[in-house]
Design a protein that fits this description.
protein-ribulosamine 3-kinase activity, alpha+beta, 7 helices, two-stranded antiparallel ribbon, protein-ribulosamine 3-kinase, EC 2.7.1.172, Aminoglycoside 3'-phosphotransferase, Chain: A, domain 2, Fructo-/Ketosamine-3-kinase, about 10% strand
Length: about 200
């Protein structure tokens, strides 16, 4: 899907023509000219939805201000410079083992329950880093055999870390945040422990 769609996004923009959903959480897919703008808006939207369920977190707000002002621009802005500028490709948007199966008797994979949008292809790989989702680094390495790492390649692991933050349980704890899964925390409001993981 990534290889066949790259370079075919409407007007070369990031987003989608309708809202899509992760569970019952809508994604604001309004078109943007830059990947950085789309990514920041998406993460902030997930955070607002989680805050509506569990209330405000002053600690999270303090940590995310420098994240949005310094970390994200440092990692995503270089993707849009020079000859190797990224092009949006169509993503499934919610890849994890619960949305992947094998067609009976064929050994062919099938993916379902998409939350699609046009984005940086590496965004899809955020869930691969999450041990709970059983995909793992071997899937990541195999993917990169077929689709090269974007430049600057030295930033790949850091980009993958911030991409895992959007909706997947990830290494938010490495940023000293108490929110580890915006999506699950929002989708399961009665389970207060998710916010504290």
């Amino acid at each position: 899907m990534h290889q066949n769609s790259i370079g075919h996004a409407p007007e070369g923009k990031y987003g989608f023509h309708v809202s899509t959903y992760q569970g019952n959480m809508p994604q604001n897919n309004t078109w943007t000219d830059t990947w950085e703008e789309y990514y920041i808006r998406g993460l902030k939207d997930f955070m607002k939805q989680e805050e509506a369920v569990h209330g405000r977190s002053v600690e999270l707000e303090e940590l995310l201000s420098p994240f949005f002002e310094k970390v994200v621009p440092r990692l995503l802005r270089p993707l849009e410079w020079g000859e190797k500028k990224i092009k949006p490709c169509l993503l499934h948007g919610d890849i994890w083992y619960g949305n992947i199966a094998e067609i009976a008797g064929t050994e062919k994979p099938i993916m379902f329950d998409p939350a699609g949008f046009w984005a940086h292809n590496e965004y899809e790989l955020g869930s691969f880093r999450v041990p709970r989702y059983r995909l793992g680094l071997q899937w990541l390495k195999e993917y990169n055999k077929h689709f090269p790492i974007s430049e600057p390649q030295d930033d790949f692991d850091d980009r993958n870390l911030i991409y895992s933050m959007q909706a997947f349980p990830s290494s938010l704890s490495s940023l000293k945040m108490d929110h580890t899964h915006f999506c699950a925390s929002t989708l399961y409001p009665s389970n207060k422990s998710i916010r504290q993981q």
